[in-house]
Amino acid sequence: MSEVLNIFDIKHKNAGSRARTGTLHLPHGDVRTPVFMPVGTNATVKAMPKDFLEEIDFDIILANTYHLFLRPGPDLIKEAGGLHGFSQWKKNFLTDSGGFQVFSLSKLRKITDEGVRFQSHIDGSYHMFTPENVVQTQTKFNSDIQMQLDVCSGWGVERKEAEKALRITSDWLLRAKGEWEKQREAGYQGMLFPIVQGNFFEDLRQKSAEFVSSLNMPGIAIGGLSVGEPPAEFTKYLNYTVQYLPEDKPKYVMGIGTPEYILDAVQAGIDMFDCVLPTRNARNGSYFTRRGMLSIKQERWTHDFGPVDSECNCKVCRTYSRSYLRHLFKEQEILSSILASYHNLYFLNNMLKEIRVAIDEDRFEEYRKEFLEKFHQGV
């Protein structure tokens, strides 16, 4: 297939940094960037009906290939009309390849040049992921963006291991691309993003970025970051990697969800990011506020009848008090997870809206500085 898929329009580049706004054109509608994508591992964002996600104004969410491959299985999802028909979320889905979950969750796995054989964390059954069948699985999901199968190596591994992971990831990319092109010819509309690896070795990062760029794919994901390294190393290697990637492609950093990391990524010219953190924090009673994280379990909120965040306009902050939300959390009421998840996702989505306005007005650096100063004050 010789066609080059241009799915991204850059709207405005901020003066003084790589930050930019843009629009991703995907099968289930346009996505405004920079964008935070909530994680819906099992084709659902935990504790969030799809109506809430629409109300907050998300354009795209994630689902997880590993979990959905094991249950309920790609054939059932295809029968239901793909992820959109199955879940009734009618906007975009990005699905990861499942590679990270195989490496982090599986009791037993064996990586070969062919693929990765692994044992299910659910029932111990054995399965094989190859670059080709992972593309086929995500095609059955009808993913708007799917990711290649890759090998993610953690912080602190030896160079030899990082070299091997990169070699396999690069080989798998060529095979995934070939399968994706076949699926496109058969009518599949979704995009495939390759993944830059290379661990924390500059020459390997450069090699991977240049190889991925040479293939002229619709977008590019930067993997192997936010895997346990110190924040300064994350920022250093992110900025180092970006310089070898084409300006005109959408760039996606996998697995970041704190305001600090998001602002660093936007500053480096990243357009997309995702994380389970906002909803996981929510289930543990931790709320985002303008002045940092608020732990609702603390006794000091017992008689506090004010909102979680007086500067937030979400329906949780407009309706419920810290006192009541603390009561819900202490009693382990299901509503606690629902309301906290709604607030945290609203907070981040609203932050991204503010970031986009700040970039368009060439004041991103000023916004970043002011936001972080306030966020680090503490509640």
Which stretches are poorly predicted, pLDDT < 50 over at least 5 residues? Answer: none
Any idea what the shape is?
Answer: globular
Number of helices: 15
- Largest sheet entry: 5 strands, parallel
Indicate the structural class.
alpha/beta
Report the helical percentage. Answer: 40-55%
Compute the CA-based radius of gyration. 21 Å
State the separation between the terminal residues, measured CA to CA. 55 Å
Mean pLDDT: 96
Give a count of the beta strands, DSSP E runs of length 2 or more.
17
Strand order of the largest sheet: 4-15-14-13-12
Strand content: 15-25%
Characteristic terms for this protein:
single chain; 379 residues; alpha/beta; four-stranded parallel β-sheet; 15 helices; 43% helix; globular
Describe the structure.
- The chain is an alpha/beta fold.
- The chain is about 45% helix and about 20% strand.
- The protein has 15 helices and 17 strands.
- The chain has helices at about 50-55, 65-70, 75-80, 80-85, 100-105, 130-140, 160-185, 200-215, 230-240, 260-265, 275-285, 315-320, 320-330, 335-360, 365-375; strands at about 10-15, 20-25, 30-35, 35-40, 60-65, 90-95, 110, 115-120, 125-130, 145, 190-195, 195, 220, 250-255, 270-275, 285-290, 290-295.
- The strands form five sheets. Strands 4-15-14-13-12 form a five-stranded parallel sheet.
- α9 links the parallel β13 (about 220) and β14.
- The longest helix is centred in the middle third of the chain and has 27 residues, at about 160-185.
- The radius of gyration is 21 Å and the shape is globular.
